[in-house]
């Protein structure tokens, strides 16, 4: 658990997404986007745009720098950070509905699948408080994590082919890390088996990160023996993000990266006009 002090250039900026060692950040006036590497203190300013950019994840869904950057602007009811899978961008809203944007089609289209989450999957009067979309590394499956009923219960679902959410009782060897700026998961190895079947949230108790165990159905602190069936006394870190340290060296200079992004934006504008 680290508290990072941002450079002056990023003062009052908001973290929108994080992946592969980079944060996507937006200025307070919502007019400028930045890429920021918190571990190496490196900042790259992206080309300006008049659009209010609410979703830009395709840049972060590949480990190589893209030749095209897609800027998506539309409203979805309290959508969490999207994921990219098989050339399609998936979105999840607070009601469990799923929207899919297919970048492979000649004609761009957004398809919204409603009523993906059957009411019987949640008890009566249970309201979803938080929702997260996850595609674990090395897997084709897509999962959703819902915090429901006054933040007491945590439910995990798997997206089926017919766009219906199937309840998952156990994550097996998987571990999930979720926040409002990034969410990811992976399969633990022999050295990290103790992390399996847990979901880590951007919440702390007495300066200790907490997680929810699908085995005990309780919240626990990463250090110490704290345990609780609710998270009433937690400090919620709304502007926190999970960071995976990367050893990948930047192969292009800032100027070349800027050129790559600018060319991608120009091609996008040309296609749209």
TrEMBL record:
Pfam families in the record: Beta-prop_KIB1-4
Signal peptide interval: none
Domain KIB1-4 beta-propeller stretches: 83-212
Protein name (database record): KIB1-4 beta-propeller domain-containing protein
